[in-house]
Amino acid sequence: LKPGDLIDSIDGTTARKLDLDTVSARVKGKAGTSVRLKIERAGKLLDYTVTRRQVDLPVVESRIIGNKVGYISVSSFSSGVAVKFARALHALEDQKIAGLVIDIRDNGGGYLNECLDMLSNFIPHGTALWTREAGGQLNPVTVNGGGVSFPVVVLVNENSASASEIFSAAMQENKTALVLGTKTFGKGVIQRSWDLADGYELKVTVEEYYTPNKNTIQKKGLTPNIVVADPTPALFGTLPGDGQLARAVQTVEEGKRP
């Protein structure tokens, strides 16, 4: 498999209309088992059988770029990510950063509690989101935490979904950060999942969520404060080639705030 390959089907089932969370769940599995993938590459369809194994990826990565601008990328809101994020943030603060870029592009979501814990680093007290069960009323979900004195930019794209949209909307509507990039995926529901026999998974939508200003995300996405087109995939995460990242760094260096 190569970067840029498109997943056409998973174990014989088309993946073209599946959301990012569902694709991820179907590709993942117990180490030692296999998954059949049909891949589109340069207009051709290719078949692969991939053996799953344990893969430990850095969910949180951080560094300083530009003129004392802190950069933290978060690839998913997986278990334990909030603690790793807080450690990265504190390490950057110890280096006297002038501002921060939080990159959640291509982050398909994860656990709501991890998202809320990450938000608590920036929102002293406020509404993170509203939830509604079937036929029920809106219920606020609040966070109480700290705050930062420097400007913050959150980077998003069309693959930023679910918990990523909760995070970016809360930062945007609580006037804590500017959101930059392209409109997000548009997954405004909260789901629970159960593992079944033979590698199947049951996923049930249990709640809808709304932004702090009671706007819906479902099938609409979140519009950034600053819209910048996606970079060429090969230049993603590089400077100056990644135009979104370059603009985010510039925005922070100029001291712009909501």
TrEMBL record:
User: A biological process (GO) annotation for this entry?
Assistant: proteolysis
Q: Which residues form the Tail specific protease domain?
A: 43-229
Q: Name one GO cellular component term.
A: outer membrane-bounded periplasmic space
One matching Pfam family is Peptidase_S41
| Signal sequence coordinates | none
Query: Which top-rank group of organisms is this from?
Result: Bacteria
Q: Does the keyword Cell membrane apply?
A: no
- CDD domains the UniProt entry points to: Peptidase_S41_CPP
**One GO molecular-function entry:** endopeptidase activity
Its keywords, alphabetically, are: Hydrolase, Protease, Serine protease
Is the keyword S-adenosyl-L-methionine assigned to this protein? no
Protein name from the UniProt record: S41 family peptidase
Q: Which organism is it from?
A: Candidatus Cryosericum odellii
